[in-house]
Amino acid sequence: MKVIAVETYGGPEVLHPVELPDPHPGPGQVRIRVRAAAVAPVDAMLRTGLLADMNAGRTPPFVPGMEVAGAVDEVGDDIDPALAVEVGEKVVGFVDNLGTHGGYSDYVVLPAASVTRIPEGASAPEAASFINNSLTALNALDALKLPAGATLLVTGAAGSVGGYLTQLAHHAGLRVITIAGPGDDDLVRTFGANEVVHRGPHAAADALALIPGGVDAVADAALLGDDIVDVIRDGGQLATFRPYHGEPGRGIRVHGLNVRQRATDHAAITRLRDLVNEGVLTMRVGPVLPAADATEAHRLLDAGGVRGRIILEFPIP
Questions:
Q1: Fewer beta carbons within 10 Å, N or C terminal of the chain?
Q2: Alpha-carbon distance 100 to 20, whole Å?
């Protein structure tokens, strides 16, 4: 099979096709013939070497990609009947990528627990667009355990993770304050934002003006770190998605989160699919490119400002 991989770290130009042996499923696993894979910031982190420690001791190539959509074409032995999917079933899968195992591949083998049927009527690009970010958002809300009516500030609310945080928090009955760009008010309100604060040097002060005592928690999708902790009330919480080394004090609890810990949480993955079917979560597709144009996809990712998930279509010619 062909994959899109890196053999040296660097800019988008280091991505290129590589031929690897076809993988086959072992016990409890399924093989997916990939039709679409999402392009995410974590893929750029792998490409540039920011995740080099993850692959320490492994020999390149390294394959990015943490979410795919396609069809099951091989099934291993000893699949839990509760997880069983048939050959030919259209599915979406979360990929805990490592080394040569990644979503930018013609085929990928996954634990059956990491796979669920695609949302009703979804195309492959649509199906590949939601699982990683929505699972990241759900992981944060599960860690925060906020009761209905609590106040949550979401930074980067117009982005992929921030958008799903806003939608899930609204669905859970939270009061959602969002920070987003000046042109994104209507978008984040469709996600369920109760209040919108514009990003910039006065964002924290503007948020405190809305909630003078401070919010119960911040989900920091925009990685604002110390610039946003003053908005949290004493004894509140901060959910972070990359390492945060600050010490907010005032009894604030910091949750450092990694979505990979939910890679085989089949109940959560399927619940998110069901929320798409119910219209609670949206599938946000941006540019769709052939897998052979992965370099251009990463240039778009690095440039920023894309609304919706950049998608690569497979197979690789």
A1: C
A2: 8
Q: Quickly tell me which residue has 């839990």 as its tokens.
A: 80
Domain map (residue ranges) of the chain? 2-129+283-313, 133-260
281 DSSP assignment: S
Q: How is residue 227 annotated by DSSP?
A: G
Residues paired with 313 in a beta bridge = 36, 290
What's the sign of the alpha-carbon dihedral 272, 130, 136, 187? negative
pLDDT number for residue 180: 95
pTM equals 0.95
Distance CA 57, CA 51 (A): 13
**Per-residue pLDDT band at 244 (split at 50, 70, 90):** confident
CA end-to-end distance (rounded Å), the chain: 10
The CA-CA-CA angle for residues 12, 154, 180, to 5°, reads: 65
Q: Report the SS3 class of residue 119.
A: coil
The hierarchical CATH code for the domain 2-129+283-313 is 3.90.180.10
Does the domain at 133-260 match CATH 3.40.50.720? Answer given as yes
What average pLDDT does the segment 26-31 reach? Answer: 96
